[in-house]
Amino acid sequence: MQASLVSEIGIEQRNATRAAFLIPGIGISAWAPLVPFVKERAGLNEGLLGLLLLCIGLGSFVAMPVATRVAKQAGCRLPILVGASLIASVLPLLGFLSNIYALAAILLLFGMGLGAVEVVANFQAVQVEQAFDRPMMSGFHGMWSIGGIAGATAVSIALWLGLTAVQSALVISIVIGALIAVYAGGLIQSPAPGVQERSSFPRGVVLLLGGLSFLVFLAEGSVLDWSAVFLRESLSVEPAYAGLGYGAFAIAMTIGRLKGDRVVEVIGRGRAVLYGGLIAGLGFVITASSEFAALAILGFVVIGIGSSNLAPIFVSSAGARAPTAPGPAIAAVTAMGYSGVVIGPALVGFLAHGLTLAWSFIVIGLLFGLIAMSARWAVR
Fold it and tell me: Is residue 197 part of a domain?
């Protein structure tokens, strides 16, 4: 990074980076309590809902490379502002649309906004972290988790107070708009470090880290989009409380990430990934086998604790593999990881249609066993 760029980065840019992670966390978690309403309103089974959720993934796939190219030329501000504005604009539409084709189009746009903000926010985080010369990535990812708490909890409370789905979503859109207005000035307009170099298909350990990150975010996306459905349909939880599963997961993940840098420092990256993978896998088994809502929610808490620091470790490890130009490696791992957030729910829908939603969660728990076994070598 050029010295002049480092000198221009300070508290304002750090706070704007936190907001850049907070916005997609709020937006996508606000969607979680609305999923059962969309499912009922459109008359969808698990398979059709999985196909519909796939539109979010397709939108992100379209937006991520475009946002990356914009970041090369114009810096992080433009793609983050456009993506955040798109999230805020389309979210209320998900509160009342019932036509499956209209929902598919809106979810496509929703995914484009999420993909643009999430991938470019990591580029800005790299610049800020290098400027401050200390580990900050877990803290930034923790802001995404805080957004998850805020979005899911706010919508659940709004529904409990009697607001409609549209009104609840509109509240979230106003909050996102306020964040854009307050923190836009701190978004960096210079190109992200290492992004200017010619990109290539990820190989070797970077490809492995991206695959592991994909599995972690696949699980997170599954909890996001299916926790409310599981609690409502499998355990007969009232609609106003169905979002508490994701809220509990997000709280646990936030606490884990805010303490993550210290944990990794004490036990090392390898053990952190080993223990985290095993704990998260156990959480999925607890939730899937539970006959009581309280125990299922406890399972979501265990999942959040176990998975909290896996993604930040994978991103940091990717950057460490190419310290002089970390941009391409971080971009690859980030894109592969966040694609799991949006593809995972669709895959779970297909599995749930053929098996059950509980068995789908068990399959994801087994995948965390693979993470525990393979990732120690990857992050060594």
Answer: no
